[in-house]
Amino acid sequence: MSDFKHISCQQVADLLQTDEDIKIVDIRDEASYSAAHIEGAYHLTNGTLNTFMAEADYDQPVVVVCYHGVSSQGAAQYIAQQGFEDVYSMDGGFEAWRKEQPFVQSADE
Fold first, then answer.
1. Which of 20, 24, 61, 72 could form a disulfide with 66, with the two C-beta atoms 3.0–4.6 Å apart?
2. Pairing of the two strands 104-105 and 36-37
3. CA dihedral sign, ordered 67, 14, 101, 9
4. Rounded to two decimals, what is the model's pTM?
5. How far from each other are the two terminal CA atoms of the chain, in whole angstroms?
């Protein structure tokens, strides 16, 4: 059975600088995602899950992001069990990222 790995915000930022193939999936609610998210992140919801699975490259590294790095662990485990080879849960979630790294913020914030 495939398992996910943990990854820090800094490690994700480093990967984004060196590996344009990495896929960030944000599982937070619509309002939180719309207000601010990591640039290029895919908003993964129950409604977008089938599309994500159908279009995804199972060899591409996937980093799952939630609010604080807790919920992303369950989602990362699920994604890994679907056959993705390189799956991570970002420790600290978007709240940690917000303190350390650049992100996209909606214009009305």
1. 72
2. antiparallel
3. positive
4. 0.91
5. 42
Beta bridge partners of 24: 63
Task: Identify the three-state secondary structure at position 103.
Answer: coil
Q: Are 24 and 42 in contact (CB under 8 A)?
A: yes
Specify the pLDDT at position 19. Answer: 66
Known catalytic residues are 66
In the chain, DSSP assigns E strands to 5-7, 23-26, 36-37, 42-43, 62-65, 87-90, 104-105
- Sorted by where each starts, the structural domains of the chain and their CATH numbers stand as 5-105 (3.40.250.10)
What parts of the chain have a pLDDT lower than 50?
A: 109
pLDDT at 107: 57
Contact 64, 97 (CB under 8 A): no
Q: Note the pLDDT of residue 21.
A: 85
**Which residues lie below 8 Å from residue 50, measured CB to CB, with a gap of 6+?**
none
Token pair 């993705």 in the structure block, residue: 84
Looking at the chain, how many residues does it have?
109
